Amino acid sequence: MNGLNEVLADNHYPGRGVLWCRTGDGDTLGAYFLTGRSRASQARALRRTPESELIVAPSEARAHDHLRHYVAARQSGRWLVFGNGEQVATVAERLDSGLVPALALDGLDYEPDPPIFTPRLTVVADGRDAGQAWFGAARHSSGTRTATNRLTLQVSGLAPGEGVLMSTYRSDGHAVATGEPLAEVRIAAGNRSGLLEELWTSLPLQLRIAAAVFSPGGLAEADIRQAAPAQS
């Protein structure tokens, strides 16, 4: 198991990512991050709404882009839902209707952005059992098949210093490809503020947009770090 900083430092373009982990003090936390290469991607901010959601929004008012602007985290009753696209709201609504996490994550598709077909990554964390979470990934086949590959992973019993990470992309500095399905990582941070620092400093400096750390039931108190937004 490699450290979070090693895994991210080895990836020249991780895109967007979700993390579920336990810090050294025993706190179980979720995290979300954005990196971007284009001016349109970098002209975004991670904001807290009056409803205590976290949204990815344009840094300047303009028409909504459903692939770039979305609810990134929402508390839905006992469930904390976070991820990299509009599916977060869909999954939260399904949970509100009574579906269990595995079914709420079912039926999602990857993003319609050829040629890379960005995966949809979603985490559902249980506020009544702080150690338990479900990851959902909707991914394009590595071949020519267009049907969505859907991965659902239940994570529980993390020890302090353990985490699970998913990112949308993988790059060696030249080519960009869909990220690996998941990575189990070591967390060096001893507490919540340390986790945000560890995550932020592990992201590629020139591509950083925003990162947030939060706990189930505590989305209103999410810690957010962001770069000065680029002007579109």
From TrEMBL:
This is Inosine monophosphate cyclohydrolase-like domain-containing protein. One of its GO terms (molecular function) is IMP cyclohydrolase activity. One of its GO terms (biological process) is IMP biosynthetic process. InterPro entries: IMP_cyclohydrolase-like, IMP_cyclohydrolase-like_sf. Residues 13-212 form the Inosine monophosphate cyclohydrolase-like domain. SUPFAM superfamilies: Archaeal IMP cyclohydrolase PurO.
